[in-house]
Design a protein that fits this description.
Length: 56
């Protein structure tokens, strides 16, 4: 587990607490989906960049 994963986890816990206190659970769930999707896209693009760097 690297620091970015720990950071994302802490950020999601913070968002969860705030959303629970403000009664906006649906918004929290949607933000979680968006963060997960963006993280996956970022990881895929990093993998493609590493493959391109190896072939160059």
């Amino acid at each position: 587990m690297n620091f970015s994963t720990i950071g994302y986890t802490l950020f999601l816990v913070f968002l969860g607490i705030v959303s629970f206190l403000t009664k906006e659970i649906v918004t929290f769930v949607m933000l979680c989906f968006i963060i997960i999707i963006l993280t996956n896209i970022h990881n895929v693009l990093k993998g493609i960049l590493e493959k391109l760097d190896k072939t160059s």
